[in-house]
Amino acid sequence: MRHVSVEEWKKQFDDALIQRSVRGMIHALQSQSTTHAGTARAQVKRTAIYTIERYFQSELDTLFQIAIELCKSKNSTAEEIGSQLLVPCYHLDPCKVEHVLQDLADSPNWEVREWVADACGSILVTHFENFYPSIHSWAKNESENVRRAVVLALMYAGKSRNPQFSNRILNILELLLSDRSTYVKENLGPFAIGSALIKYYPDEVLAWLRRCVLSNDEQVRWNVAMVFHAAVGAHYALEAKDIIDILLKDERPYVQGAVNKALKNIRKRCPEYFEPFSS
To answer: Are 141 and 176 in contact (CB under 8 A)?
Structure first.
């Protein structure tokens, strides 16, 4: 498809918006697709989301219909935009929104999965009580893509630092600590917890890790250790010395591999952790 200028695609998009033509919107967006990703640039997608939301701000039912059509279009750019447009429409039909997002969370396109996880996190922040039971059930989904979306959605919700969320976020993540999927575990201990949640809820997360590390499941302990492999997590090493001491006594190679990675990062980020051993 011919790549057109920014001014031209915006005119095409605005014309499609006035005509309420989802097909026309997608056609305009495709003119901005990059060769390496096959989807429009993030700035283009954000502009499209803002434009659609603003145009239909007083017609929420129409916005919802357009969002659903975009999500079901089989076009990756449209699916990403549609997932975000479902956020302000969640209350209109929670079951339908959740069904559509769960399907897209298992998309073969990694970019779509990222945008959907972000949308799920936003819905959790604004509709925590209603959406939480579904996220809880998704944690047991057979698809590793869906389970990984749960991890990211909970991390994004935690960014709100709402104290009422912390324990329930951790309760779901605890279900996933023993998950052996590479896609899940790499986004859990070292990323969602170690790079984000421990910063958002330090006291709650450290108390939770003290309980989790008592598990004999080596995947659980791997995740606990990898929290401190993250740059943010390493800064809590002194406060977590009792947790790390338990991990150091676990002789299983899988656990020790994670512990060694954590100690290497702790030495760089929190050298004072090693001071008692340097004399």
So the answer is: no
276 pLDDT more than 70: no
Distance CA 8, CA 145 (A): 36
A 10 A CB-CB count for 274 gives: 12
Q: Residues with Cβ < 8 Å from 188, sequence gap 6 or more?
A: 151, 173, 176, 177, 179, 223
Residue 171 exposed, middle or buried by CB count within 10 Å (0-12, 13-18, 19+): middle
DSSP 57: T
Residue 243 to residue 206: CA distance in whole angstroms: 9
Answer whether 63's CB lies under 8 Å from 82's CB. no
Closest CA to 263 of 240, 122, 252: 240
Q: What is the DSSP string of 215-244?
A: ---HHHHHHHHHHTTSHHHHTTTTTTHHHH
Q: In whole angstroms, what is the distance from residue 263 CA to residue 266 CA?
A: 5
Q: Which residue do the tokens 């051993």 mark?
A: 277
Each residue's pLDDT tens digit, 170-200: 999 999 999 999 999 999 999 999 999 999 9
Question: What's this model's pTM, rounded to 2 decimal places?
Answer: 0.94
Helix axes 60-71, 42-55, angle to 10 degrees: 150
